Amino acid sequence: MSILRTERLSRNFGGLMAVNNVSIAVEAGERRAIIGPNGAGKTTFFNLLSGELRPLSGHIFLDEREITPLPPHQRARLGIGRTFQRNNLFLGLTVYENIQLAVQQRLGLASRWLRPARTFEDLDREVVGLATTLGLEGRLFEPAGSLSYGEQRQLEIALALAMRPRVLLLDEPTAGMSPAETAKMVQMIAGLPRDVTLLIIEHDMDVVFSLADRITVLHYGQVIADGVPEEVKGNPKVLEVYLGEA
Amino acid sequence: METLIIQLLNGLVFSMLLFTMAAGLSLIFGQMDVINLAHGSFYLLGGYIGLTMVRRLGSFWLALVVAPLVVGALGLALEYFFLRRLYGRHRHLDQVLFTFGLALIAADLIRWNWGAYVESVPPPELLSGQIPVFTVQFPVYRLSLIAVGVTLALGLGLLLERTRIGAIIRAGVADAEMVSALGIDIHKVFAGVFALGVALAALAGVLGAPVLNLYPGLDFEILILTLVVVVVGGLGTLRGAFFGSLLIGMADTFGKAFLPEFALFLIFAVMAVVLLLRPSGLFGLEGT
Amino acid sequence: MAAITSRLARARVRLARRRTWWLAGLVLVALVYPYVVRPYQLSLAIEVLIFAIFAMSLDILLGYTGLVSFGHAAFFGLGAYLVAYTTLGVTNNLLVTLPVVVAGTALAALVAGFFAIRTSGIYFLMVTLAFAQMLFSIAIRWSSVTGGSDGLSGVARPAIGLGPLSYTFDSRTSFYYLVLAFFIFSWWFLRRVVDSPFGWALRGIRENEQRMLALGYNTFRYKMAAFVIAGVFAGVAGMLLTQFFRHAAPENLYWTTSGQVMIMLIVGGTGTLTGPVLGAAVIRLLPNYLSTYTDRWQTVLGLTFILFVLFAPRGIMGLWERFRQRGENREHSAD
């Protein structure tokens, strides 16, 4: 049974079909890369999955339950976590507070309104733990806005992981990172527990091939190839799209 | 039946005054993302300058030209010296607060200079008296206000749709960064739009004085109604300002005539319904 | 890592201890205050404390949640009219009037919030402003109930008690203590709220609502809760002012009242809870000293406000922070 499935999903911007009739099925625990040239509709596809955008037509299923009409926060609660292509953080708050916001929601503490947040020990423990995992423990009390780009990228991932999502959408996790930072990030992602289903948008083919079990190739909003890395690598249509671009 | 016709005409008159205000407010917002909370103050200032000119020089027509020019120049100066300091993404609230501070100061200074009494301004000689409309007698001056309003709507529409300046302004509404990328000095456009907007407010002040009189507190009464108009119509569009003005002008006039205690309540109800159905107004763009 | 957190924890404890001493000192001063000042100064203190509650309530909305309400007087004035009406018609017993004010303003906040919170940014600002102005117009026009432009006079000072056991806060001094108790409770309560996970969620919404949604927060509910909390405390402030002046006036609902509390908040510093208290003191006391020099105090007020907006958008608290940091830097370089 697939954990996440789309059925003829479409979305337009004006006359342009950004996502066109996309049907994919992702198995639980799978690591799926979504690749394609710029403007292929990858981020739009993610926005449809997380609920930031409404589809023009088509359906989305999580555990075979239709989630198409649900708003973003309800999808998040059902277990869809995501990171954003451009860092999307609480820039005026510290690293600690950023992670705290994600953790307290998952622990069901977010609506506690008369007890100081710092007195919840499990909350504190988990925030510090996550920051350590992502290598941000030294910056806990710095405002997120003062972090370097790479550190902000890590914080972005920390927020998504804090939700303990079942399906995690990573939108270009290594974009703009140095080779060293990229290697660390890939290692971190590879080390995620296998029960987290991953969808990764990525341009760096080394990253794609080192992480993905399966690859879906989008071009002008349509799926032109879908399969294990070896199949996709040899697919003439994919070669044409990529070589034609280069 | 006759009261109905008279109220209908009065509603139109008031709608056109509101439109003159709302067009300026909406234009300024569309261009600079600033809600000008001093817009009512510019209305009142325009009206009082008009009053002084009528008293001193005896010419309503001169007042009609001079008051908007003076207030427009004032707007230009305020934009250049203060508002300009507050552009930039994170100072949105500061801009609104600045115009609010202006409104506070203006209210005080206007009361100081012109007193706290209700002042009435006679309509110009040429347009005094009444003429028959259908079965009722209706003041010529008020009737001409309807004509002025419609002319203004068409004129502004043409300015925006058909001229180069209009094209720049429309482009600025859509994307100010793109306009500056095209090599146009966006600051000049901002300053011009702000001056035009507040000059329109002053024009409304002079035009409205013979109908609504002038008194301290009118600035905020007018501002509130104008804000409701743009909320209902949708910010940043001329069409929204026009149809919003009609809706609110009529609701206010009929409310005051038939349910005087709850006139503003009626207006608020209209606004609530529109917001429920379309959170960004009748003609507003989705997601703004 | 452990060293860092423990050092931070120790610093925190030290700070908390220092703050406790400060607070204890301030409360002591507040307690003996009525016995060392003239009645006029006592009245001023009562007004400052009431407006401090009002300004703190707006801080929950504007400072913490990022919702810019320009119509906060709606709830202040509603509290005023509710207590006046109840006191004149039923009883001055706080055990009745306070629940009426709390329930009434909460209900009004739910209704107004339902419409206002669907909108955001500039629209929110305009809808709240229009809501307050609508209540003002009803207060002026529906004179058979509201007393029209005269408002409702002859409102008795509150009493508290059951049956024969009852105490009336009739004297100015006793009423001062009542207001002080309300102020301390409000400060403590709102401080708890903003320090709680819920309070942090409000800051999250202020910083980046879209991301909060992606984290699974139903932000509408949080904003609604903030709107109701702010409305209720504003209502309580309005109640106290009415009981103090024995009069509910339409001005309590007017935009100048919304504006004044907004100015207190900006001048004091948003998102701090302490700032609004300082702002309330400055703005409420300023006219008393200025009126000796000029009649144009509203102009001076407006100018002061504009100067803060232009040059110190984080208010007195921001200036203080900057001042302290400079001091610390000097200490460091002296080492």
Task: Label this structure with key terms.
heterotrimer, A: 246 residues, alpha/beta, Rossmann fold, 6-stranded mixed beta sheet, 5-stranded antiparallel beta sheet, 9 helices, 11 strands, globular, B: 288 residues, mainly alpha, two-stranded antiparallel sheet, 74% helix
Strand order of the largest sheet of chain C: 1-4
Structural class of chain B: mainly alpha
Please tell me what the overall shape of chain B is: globular
Q: Tell how many strands the DSSP assignment of chain B holds.
A: 2
Strand portion of chain C, in percent?
under 5%
- The helix count of chain C comes to 14
How does this structure look, described?
The complex is a heterotrimer of chains A (246), B (288) and C (335). Chain A is of the alpha/beta class and 246 residues long. Helix content of chain A is 37%, strand content 24%. Chain A has nine helices and eleven strands. In chain A, helix 3 packs across helix 4, helix 3 runs parallel beside helix 5 and helix 4 crosses helix 5. Chain A is globular, with a radius of gyration of 18 Å. The termini of chain A are far apart. The mean pLDDT of chain A is 93. Chain B is mostly helical and 288 residues long. Chain B is 74% helix and 3% strand. Chain B has eleven helices and two strands, in the order H-H-H-H-E-E-H-H-H-H-H-H-H. In chain B, strands 1-2 form a two-stranded antiparallel sheet. Chain B is globular and about 60 Å long. In chain B, 51% of the residues are buried. The mean pLDDT of chain B is 89. Helix content of chain C is 78%, strand content 4%. In chain C, the strands form two sheets. In chain C, strands 1-4 form a two-stranded antiparallel ribbon. In chain C, a hairpin with a 2-residue loop joins strand 2 and strand 3. In chain C, helix 2 runs parallel beside helix 7 and helix 3 packs antiparallel against helix 4. The mean pLDDT of chain C is 92.
